[in-house]
């Protein structure tokens, strides 16, 4: 009996000894969860800032949130454009190059619908626009108005825009739509090859000419941002609802219309009147007072 007990005890010891290396081998082969960079950074910060190495800091990417304030912008822009007219009845024409389009604008950025992507923009512009008729081979004739094949007008314009913008740190996408009102302050008529302009009308409007102008205007572009300066590149399309002349100026039975339109590409330099991103001076002052007097600022004072 004693011999049998000795054999059983020996077998149990051998089995436990052979199982121990297998369990150890399983633990060694079990994959360890790798610590993320954030956890590593937290552990290093707990140990102390002196333990952070340059090599480790180079691997950490810190993303800063871009918060756009309700700021204001003022600037000047200059552009050039192409002018044409929608004629009724239709006439053969060329597009007229207008190298003068200069103006001042003021833009107010702010939140709308809980989103900081909107702005209102207004300005005053001086521009030139006009028309030029082309030779019609079918009728062997070039159309004329007051004996002129071509005319250039000086216009003062006041546009008002509703603007959408999307900002990154040094770049901005812009799109805007709005209306404008204007006044045609001057005109120069050119007889061309086959026309003749009365000297009294060469630089003067007729009583039947419409000098007040109004219509719609919209555009899109981008901006390069170098706080506190911005450079805007824009392309606009303008369509007038005010005909160049009274529809019955030629005949009380056959009405004629002429609605100008323009395509303008411009560049402008703008200055930020207040802080574009980060905390403004008012916010910093409020934060400083809160740190001194607490959150219940002004109570009991």
Describe this structure in words.
The chain has 301 residues and is of the alpha+beta class. The protein has a domain at 72-272: Porin (Beta Barrel). Helix content is 19%, strand content 45%. The protein has helices at 2-29, 37-47, 54-58, 281-293; strands spanning 72-88, 93-94, 96-112, 115-133, 150-167, 171-190, 212-226, 229-240, 257-272. The radius of gyration is 38 Å and the shape is elongated. Mean pLDDT is 82; it is low at 1-9, 11-20 and 22-27.
Can you describe this structure in just a few lines?
The chain has 301 residues and is an alpha+beta fold. It has helices at 2-29, 37-47, 54-58, 281-293; strands at residues 72-88, 93-94, 96-112, 115-133, 150-167, 171-190, 212-226, 229-240, 257-272.
Terminal CA distance: 98 Å
Strand content: over 45%
CATH class of the domain at 72-272: Mainly Beta
Structural class comes to alpha+beta
Largest sheet: number of strands, sense, barrel closure: 8 strands, antiparallel, barrel
> What percent of residues adopt helix (DSSP H or I)?
10-25%
Write down how many β-strands occur, each being a DSSP E stretch of 2 or more residues.
9
Task: Specify the CATH architecture of the domain at 72-272.
Answer: Beta Barrel
Spatial shape:
elongated
Order of helices and strands: HHHEEEEEEEEEH
Kindly report the spatial arrangement of strands forming the biggest sheet.
1-3-4-5-6-7-8-9
């Amino acid at each position: 009996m004693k011999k049998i007990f000795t054999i059983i005890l020996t077998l149990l010891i051998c089995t436990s000894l052979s199982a121990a290396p297998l369990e150890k081998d399983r633990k060694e082969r079990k994959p360890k969860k790798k610590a993320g960079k954030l956890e590593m950074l937290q552990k290093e910060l707990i140990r102390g800032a002196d333990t952070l190495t340059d090599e480790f800091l180079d691997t950490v990417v810190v993303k800063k949130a871009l918060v756009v304030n309700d700021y204001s912008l003022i600037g000047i822009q200059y552009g050039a454009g192409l002018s044409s007219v929608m004629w009724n009845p239709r006439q053969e024409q060329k597009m007229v190059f207008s190298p003068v389009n200069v103006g001042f604008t003021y833009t107010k950025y702010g939140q709308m619908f809980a989103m900081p992507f909107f702005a209102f923009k207004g300005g005053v512009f001086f521009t030139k626009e006009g028309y030029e008729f082309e030779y019609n081979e079918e009728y062997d004739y070039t159309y004329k108005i007051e004996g002129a094949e071509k005319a250039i007008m000086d216009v003062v314009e006041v546009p008002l825009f509703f603007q959408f913008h999307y900002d990154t740190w040094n770049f901005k996408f812009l799109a805007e739509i709005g209306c404008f009102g204007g006044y045609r302050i001057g005109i120069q008529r050119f007889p061309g090859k086959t026309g003749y302009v009365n000297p009294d009308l060469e630089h003067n409007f007729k009583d039947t000419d419409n000098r007040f102008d109004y219509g719609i205007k919209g555009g899109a572009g981008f901006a390069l941002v170098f706080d506190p300066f911005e450079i805007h590149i824009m392309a606009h399309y303008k369509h007038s609802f005010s005909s160049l002349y009274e529809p019955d100026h030629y005949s009380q039975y056959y009405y004629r219309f002429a609605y100008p339109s323009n395509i303008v590409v411009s560049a402008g330099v703008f200055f930020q009147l207040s802080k574009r991103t980060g905390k403004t001076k008012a916010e910093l002052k409020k934060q400083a007072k809160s740190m001194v007097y607490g959150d219940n600022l002004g109570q009991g004072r």
